[in-house]
Amino acid sequence: MANVKKSMNANIIFAADIVRNGGLIVYPTDTVYGIGCDPFNEGALRRLIRVKGREEKPLPIMASNLRNARRVASFTSAELKLAKHFWPGALTIVLKKKENLPSLVTFGRDKVGVRVPAHPVARSLAKLCGGLLIGTSANLSGMTPSKTAAEANQQLGKEVDVILDACSTAGGVSSTVVEMVGSKPKILRRGPISMAEIRGVLDSGEDHGRV
Q1: 148 to each of 14, 59, 193, 205, how far by Cα in Å?
Q2: What kind and span of H or E run contains 91?
Q3: For the chain, N or C: smaller number of CB within 10 Å?
């Protein structure tokens, strides 16, 4: 099984160092536990894909803030409105990727899912890793996403370098994934944030500026 550590500051720094050196980690988010690596390290990306047994399915990215999200993705005015309202939080927005992001992250597609998580450990990790971190769910492909470090250890413990344990995740449900199709939002995966909430933000004139 993996090296399981409590998610205190020294261990978060230790985990970030593993990522910067091309390793794989499991970490808590505000939804479910995630498995992460450096999104610019193709060797680490290939290892993560192999470990999860993932088919050719794009890998989402956790950003420490909106500024770092904009390093790898472009926002329309509607997408920016959603980000400012729901981030940090459980909404993954599918955005136009920038050319600097390795095609392996998106399997050649021109879009990438990005979010700023509400969990302080996930955001701290992303910040220490340069602002961006792969954030796919910590489970074998086709299995239930892990809500605890123990569940993640059972599925992936032999294949990752460290697991950060922050007890159960607060949400326990994977993030909502939304994509703007023209001027209309389309939910690609249901999660904690509803279509009604998304439409309400898009239809309003407010700009909450949370990130």
Answers
A1: 20, 21, 21, 39
A2: strand 91-97
A3: N
Q: What angle do CA 77, 114, 2 make, to 5 degrees?
A: 170
Q: Which of these, 118, 117, 121, lies nearest to 6 by C-alpha position?
A: 121
Mean pLDDT value across the chain: 94
* Residue tagged 């492909």 (tokens): 141
Model confidence band, residue 186 (pLDDT cutoffs 50, 70, 90)? very high
Domain ranges of the chain: 4-203
CA distances from 131 to 70, 99, 116, 140 (A): 11, 17, 10, 26
The fold for domain 4-203 equals DHBP synthase (3.90.870)
pLDDT band, very low/low/confident/very high, at 204 (cuts 50, 70, 90): confident
From CA 124, how far away is CA 127, in angstroms rounded? 5
